[in-house]
Amino acid sequence: MPNSPITSLNTWINKAAITSNKDNTQTDIALLERIKSYHNNESPTNGTYRLVSEKLASYLPTNDFQRHALHYVLKGISYLPDPLLENVVTRLKGPTSKQYLHADAHMRLIIAANSKLKTPLHIDKMLELRQRFAADSVAMQAPKVWQQEGVGQRSNLKRFMKKGAKSVNWQDKTIANADAGDMRVRCYQAKNNDKANSSANPDETVMLFFHGGGFCIGDVDTHHEFCHAVCEQTGWAVVSVDYRLAPEHPAPVALRDCIAAYAWLAENSHTLGASAKRIVLAGDSAGGGISTLVAQQVITPTQNAWADLGAEGQKSFAQLQNLPAPLAQMPLYPVTDVENDYPSWELYGEGLLLDHADVAVFDAACLANSPLSRDHLLISPMLGDNHQVCPTYVVASELDVLRDEAFAYAKQLEGFGIATQTYTVLGAPHGFIHLMSVHQGIAKETHNIIKGFAEFVNEIIKAQARLAA
Q1: 406 and 283 in contact (C-beta within 8 Å)?
Q2: Is there a contact between 24 and 32 (Cβ–Cβ < 8 Å)?
Q3: Which of 233, 315, 344, 438 could be cross-linked to 74 through a Cys-Cys bond (beta carbons 3.0 to 4.6 Å apart)?
Q4: How many helices (H) and strands (E) does the chain have?
Q5: Which residue positions in the chain have pLDDT lower than 70?
Q6: Active site residue: 249, 430, 434, 439, which one?
Q7: What is the CA radius of gyration of the chain?
């Protein structure tokens, strides 16, 4: 083997193709060949840097190629050897291993590239940001999660799937939102491919998921891969909510929409093979904050708080009456305290996927025209009554400006005697679930998070069964 850190760029891209994309369509293979041939004959010393940095620059902002181009580019880069990745990180002036001890070279390259390509956010360009975020999020997702059984070539793969493996199908449905308009939800269901046991959800559990995005961006597509993974791994039904976004719909419109979705699910859970008594909540970032507020208000509705919103607030308060309590919740790197600064605010507020400037823009978009003050309990979850909140599995990311408020929320619940577990993903930035199929470490962590929460919920179900016996 030559002394250079890489024998051939062809070798590594081919390895990525063979290892991670065994069921590619011809279009997918053609895309990989196009990436591979970009600097096919250049040596690592004079061509690899251009390959990595320029291709990141060309793919990330413009999304030129196929729908999932980013998935192949970032996944392919993950197979490059660490010395080469470290060299590119250095050239991009990215963080060192000493700065982020638990972040590997691939993660630090992603952070460095994001920092180089990032442009300042502006409220008046929020629509453009939504479109770009939606395109890039889907472009990072594995193509296989967008193929349903019986559609195209996917149906031919069924006989090759492992015994006991689950297939996932989903359907978008429309329900009435808080203003009697239309709101989309995406409903996922799994089934066992083993004909002898077709039920994939014997515990009749359903997850209601609220996407992140600063209350301003994101939709059911941007978080499709994670919801698909939860359904496939656990067998639970999953309902993802496409709530209205700021600044057109400032706080607490998103919360009201999500309460409406909870009420709809409580009434219709049986159509998904689930029980209204087995609803679990989850969400990431802003959606994690919504999760904590929904859990709080479903369990202990605060009439005075809703009265501050007049007739609209009373409508939401009425929806909260007699709803079954959620079984558990899993907020991922959530927004829990909009008023106080924590040490992580200074430690990780610059150079990462979410920075001080991003938070300020999202904050202004969500709250500037809100009828409620910043310190209102329907805005900041830790200010409300959390004494009886459901058991909670808090997920935090280490390299995150919001890390310490996730810890603070978990500590508050523990102080109230609420069953609480905290899982911290080391070396991961805010929003890491979007990297679940392009970064090997995050793939394992995401699997462990879903597994851990499923076990957490299973223990609750067992405890309830013992009490009922």
Answers
A1: no
A2: yes
A3: 438
A4: 16, 8
A5: 1-66, 150-164, 177-180, 194-198
A6: 430
A7: 22
